Amino acid sequence: MLYRYKIIIEYDGTPFLGFQKQKGSHLLTIQGSIEEALLRCVNQPIKIEGAGRTDSGVHALGQVIHFDLPNYWDSFKLSQAIQFHLKNMHNGNIFIRIINVQQVNSEFHARFSAISRSYIYKIINNRYPPALDRNRAWHVIKPLNMNHMEEGANHLIGTHDFTSFRDSECQAKTPIRMLHFFNFNQNEDIITVHISAKSFLHHQVRIMMGTLVAVGKGDITPNDVLSILNKKNRCIAGVTAPPQGLYFKEVVYN
Amino acid sequence: MLYRYKIIIEYDGTPFLGFQKQKGSHLLTIQGSIEEALLRCVNQPIKIEGAGRTDSGVHALGQVIHFDLPNYWDSFKLSQAIQFHLKNMHNGNIFIRIINVQQVNSEFHARFSAISRSYIYKIINNRYPPALDRNRAWHVIKPLNMNHMEEGANHLIGTHDFTSFRDSECQAKTPIRMLHFFNFNQNEDIITVHISAKSFLHHQVRIMMGTLVAVGKGDITPNDVLSILNKKNRCIAGVTAPPQGLYFKEVVYN
Questions:
Q1: What is the pLDDT of residues A54-97, one digit of tens each?
Q2: Which of residues 80-119 of B touch A (CB under 8 A)?
Q3: Cβ contact (<8 Å) for A94 and B10?
């Protein structure tokens, strides 16, 4: 019998080459680090599954993973043990934080059981680059028109073919996705955008944000977002916004 | 004739050995970095004065400095030049951010003209150490009672002899200080405390926070803060809270 565990984690994406383990390499990844920590806990290789594969430099506030252990572990003890090994492996730094550990039934799957995912994108809109948010936000110098960005974003809400907002290497079977909402928030020079969908295409959030920032700068109009969507062509959308502004916020399950 | 400039800066205190330049050493300091950047701008040594001397690891959201230049510089050009050199000196990293540059009259003094200063102290109150706030907050595991902390803090508001809350190396002539307010705010596991005074003694904010956290944990009562204050003895107050939770927020001038 196997015991399945669901874990919620926060991480600083800066030192990592993304979530996914790189085959046969020693590059620092989230998956690689947690699998190594689990190996040190139970003395045998354990494979984990994540709700989403974040890119290099992308952070997480509430990434969810699951895995199976051959023996029962008390949740709190397990969380302490994993956190202990992660800290040791990373020279005493907390790059990955265990937020919650829960034993779940074997039908739970971090990726396939999810009914919605949300991301936060953070922009510092100021002449000067941020110090405290150095690896935590996209620095945009030109003043952004938030109303225009919201107007542009409204065209993306709902079910659409998001071919224009999908990386050329995206392997999803269909480009159709359903976007629940965009929430814009501005506090002095900090703009945060909260985005929710059932699931996202590869680089979708970052390409949408690159396009909406082009709207905010006045390079394109809010209505251009609709025509970009309709043309189903990645080349006409905006740049892929940098990873350090992106936070994998939350995964919702039934 | 000399031209005086006032500059507001933000910094990540993590890589620095504090604000104050260390004599004859090559340790990284805020003052040392800015003076070096100014030397590169104007080709002669310039001495700066800061509104407050933050400790090693302490951050700033709005530290204020002033200095005199032998020639007139356009404020925007000067800010760009300083930021350029700071970034170069720090291997492309933005550890110090110029927020604002303003030419001021020669009576302005960053330290002596200040009528009030405020700090923010940030605590992560959670079983698990933070990842994204790794060098940005004090991690306190034991659940804190915010009401008790506020009750304890109320005893400190107003004009008092703060001998109990002053580092043994403090060189201020008098231990009397006037505290304007404490504002407590809690958002999930993040506690932020906003503290304002005309000026502070050495380590005063950190010793007050160490003491209030002892109240929050239940190690001492809110009323004990009053007796600690009255006893004028550093040894009976709480620990000095760690520097990474402290942010020099703002300086107010007439």
A1: 999 999 999 999 999 999 999 999 999 999 999 999 999 999 99
A2: 83, 87, 93-99
A3: no
Integer Cα distance of A48 and A101 in angstroms? 14
Most B CBs within 10 A among A19, A88, A94, hence the mutation to make, goes to: A94
Mutate to test the interface with A, among B88, B93, B128 (most CBs of A within 10 A): B128
Query: Do A94 and B136 lie within an 8 Å CB cutoff?
Result: no
Task: Determine the pLDDT at residue B59.
Answer: 98
Task: Report the length, in residues, of chain B.
Answer: 254
Q: Taking residues B122-130, what's their average pLDDT?
A: 95
**HEC assignment per residue over chain A:** CCEEEEEEEEECCCCCCCCCCCCCCCCCCHHHHHHHHHHHHHCCCCCCEECCCCCCCCEEEEEEEEEEECCCCCHHHHHHHHHHHHHHHCCCCCCEEEEEEEEECCCCCCCCCEEEEEEEEEEEECCCCCCCCCCCCEEECCCCCHHHHHHHHHCCCEEEECHHHCCCCCCCCCCEEEEEEEEEEEECCEEEEEEEECCCCCCHHHHHHHHHHHHHHCCCCHHHHHHHHHHCCHHHCCCCCCHHHEEEEEEEEC
- Place A27 in a pLDDT band, splitting at 50, 70 and 90: confident
Find residues 165-224 of chain B whose CB sits inside 8 Å of chain A.
none
Q: What is the pLDDT of residues A173-189, one digit of tens each?
A: 999 999 999 999 999 99
Is A219 an active-site residue?
A: no
pLDDT of residue B169: 86
CB pair distance less than 8 Å for B95 and A131:
yes
Residues of chain A neighbouring B98 (CB-CB closer than 8 A): 128
Chain B contact present for A28, CB below 8 A: no
pLDDT of residue A108: 98
**Do A9 and A65 form a contact (C-beta atoms < 8 A)?**
yes
**Chain segment A108-164, per-residue pLDDT in tens:** 999 999 999 999 999 999 999 999 999 999 999 999 999 999 999 999 999 999 999
